[in-house]
């Protein structure tokens, strides 16, 4: 058993407990907003439908706030002390999803219309700004915690920008995106906010000396998570992911499985390169591309690399936190979806 | 002479001195961004043209950073100590303009294409996020200053949201926007960041006890500034403002001169109400609406109210700062444009 002596708590139970802790504070924060922004925030957080009626659906995985609360607890503090950190990272995450969907023209999110599809582009953009402003406000008075949140914000936007810039790069040959570039992008886009969750969690939990290492832990975790997400983006079941299948491939996103497949060489890689250069549009071509990525070893490479980054994160966690069972369960569940 | 014993320094000179102080730090901050974001930031700050070539043009009025630096100085500190505050408010201001232009579909800004027209909507949205993240980063470690910046951010977005929500309200009768609602919107949209500039300036300048009053001072100033801007939006010379004439009227923006004209009653107000209910589209109708607003006293009412808020701001300034000559010159120049 991976967890040593301890029985692993189920991640759903752990996350449920965390959600009961931070959600009242999150709802109180959102109620500070202009009624219009508050309604859009409630929709994007999965609390209500387009008309503002309560909605019992998928309100997201709440992984970031759970990491904040459980890091505080694992460091010997109380989960309660880290509630402002949990609320902050959940709001910043919600902001990033709202703006991402606008930028990528994604029309669906968690089995529902994206915020901009439901309320219009201008209002959604502004609601995203409101979520971000509210996120920052949670930690504004605590210089030490705020520095981590602020660094995460800069790196998050940096990572999104790098990801967008990748779209104009060639698939292979000179100028192709390297594994190192991909990892840096993922560490920013997905890792930074997980790093901030863990670091601000222990700062508020009374163990600020652990924050620098937990920041690094979160970034490793984020790279693993992004790799898992890339795999799901190609081979995930749309009924589970809530997004159209193969949308990353269709859009020409430089995801790791494809980059790794192209870099592997051999017949499937060459066939894949030729196919991608033609920009596969129809369903048949996209399906063939996905098959070639798998044949060329791109899926295996992504899963192996995800496992490596997850192990690095867990090793850091074990090295500096006394009681990691609950936190580990949540982190494992992040990546477990692809296996 | 309004300034008592002291000769009034020219606001252009004062602002030029301020710009020489904060611009190197602002450029250093922008250079931290992803090269793509940095290029868009340089364009939106007026430093370069679309292709990234240095541009000697109108880089904005730099009023907010000047207020930060001069508040620190007026409180007995050095302007240098407030440079991080100056950089923060200028970046947050730049963020708000970039997103505003996207939301309002404004194609021109300062005699040049708006950022989204020049680089595309997605990249511009993300560049706005990057400017905001960088702005927050300037003060993240200083809990006291950060609280003002964070409050300003929340209120700024709140005010923009209120302004947008006004567009769906009727021009007159039940449900029309009241003067109190307008003032609250303007205090948020335009006042909050000026309040943060002054408050963070004195916090960094070593006089944090003055910050609450200077926050209020900035909000008053902001309402005055927004009223002046409303006047310029209808009667300003497009060659000076850099925006198309009458665009606020054409778009049905609930600006104060129009609201005051409609509330005034009388023949011109009734004629204006009928005209606005038909949504004036062609140039002739818009010109007639502007004339009616003026005849009904809307322009006078806006200028009078602007003067009142400016006086309130200056009175607060005089009451709590020992040496206000330079700061006063900059504040006067904000409003002087309409007289």
Can you offer a commentary on this structure?
The structure is a homodimer of 339-residue chains. With 339 residues, chain A is mainly α. Chain A has a single domain (11-326), classed as Farnesyl Diphosphate Synthase, CATH 1.10.600. Chain A contains 16 helices and two strands. In chain A, a hairpin with a 2-residue loop joins strand 1 (108-109) and strand 2 (112-113). In chain A, helix 9 runs antiparallel to helix 15 (298-320). The radius of gyration of chain A is 20 Å and the shape is globular. The two termini of chain A are 17 Å apart. Chains A and B meet through helix 4, helix 6 and helix 7 of A and helix 4, helix 6 and helix 7 of B.
Short description:
Two copies of one chain form a homodimer. With 339 residues, the first copy, chain A, is an all-alpha fold. Chain A contains 16 helices and two strands.
For the largest interface in this structure, which chains are involved and how many residues does each contribute?
Answer: A-B, 42 and 41 residues
Distance between the termini of chain A: 17 Å
Which structural category do the helix and sheet elements of chain A fall into? mainly alpha
Evaluate the radius of gyration of chain A.
Answer: 20 Å
Question: What is the helix tally of chain A?
Answer: 16
Residue-averaged pLDDT of chain A, rounded?
91
Shape assignment of chain A: globular
Helix content of chain A: over 70%
The low-confidence runs of chain A, each spanning 5 or more residues with pLDDT under 50, are 1-6
């Amino acid at each position: 058993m991976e967890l040593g002596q301890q029985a692993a708590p189920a991640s759903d139970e752990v996350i449920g407990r965390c959600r009961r802790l931070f959600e009242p504070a999150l709802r109180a924060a959102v109620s500070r907003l202009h009624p219009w922004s508050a309604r859009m925030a409630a929709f994007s957080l999965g609390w209500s439908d387009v008309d503002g009626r309560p909605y019992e659906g998928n309100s997201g995985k709440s992984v970031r706030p759970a990491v904040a609360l459980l890091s505080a607890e694992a460091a010997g503090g109380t989960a309660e002390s880290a509630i402002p950190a949990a609320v902050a990272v959940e709001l910043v995450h919600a902001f990033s999803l709202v703006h991402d969907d606008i930028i990528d023209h994604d029309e669906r999110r968690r089995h529902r219309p994206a915020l901009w599809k439901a309320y219009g582009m201008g209002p959604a953009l502004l609601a995203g700004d409101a979520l971000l402003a509210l996120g920052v406000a949670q930690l504004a008075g605590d210089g030490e915690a705020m520095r981590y949140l602020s660094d995460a914000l800069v790196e998050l936007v940096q990572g999104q920008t790098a990801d967008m810039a990748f779209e104009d790069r060639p698939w292979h040959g000179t100028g192709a995106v390297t594994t190192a570039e991909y990892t840096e992008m993922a560490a920013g886009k997905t890792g930074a906010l997980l790093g901030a969750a863990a670091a601000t969690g222990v700062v508020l939990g009374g163990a600020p000396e652990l924050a620098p290492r937990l920041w690094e832990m979160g970034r490793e975790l984020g790279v693993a998570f992004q790799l898992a997400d890339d795999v799901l983006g190609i081979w995930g079941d749309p009924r589970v992911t809530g997004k159209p299948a193969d949308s990353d491939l269709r859009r020409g996103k430089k995801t790791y499985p494809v980059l790794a497949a192209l870099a592997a060489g051999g017949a499937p890689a060459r066939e894949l390169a030729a196919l991608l250069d033609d920009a596969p549009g129809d369903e048949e071509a996209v399906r063939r591309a996905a098959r070639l990525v798998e044949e060329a070893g791109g899926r295996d490479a992504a899963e192996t690399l995800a496992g490596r980054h997850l192990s690095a994160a867990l090793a850091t966690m074990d090295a500096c936190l006394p009681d990691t069972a609950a936190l580990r369960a949540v982190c494992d569940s992040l990546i477990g979806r692809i296996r």
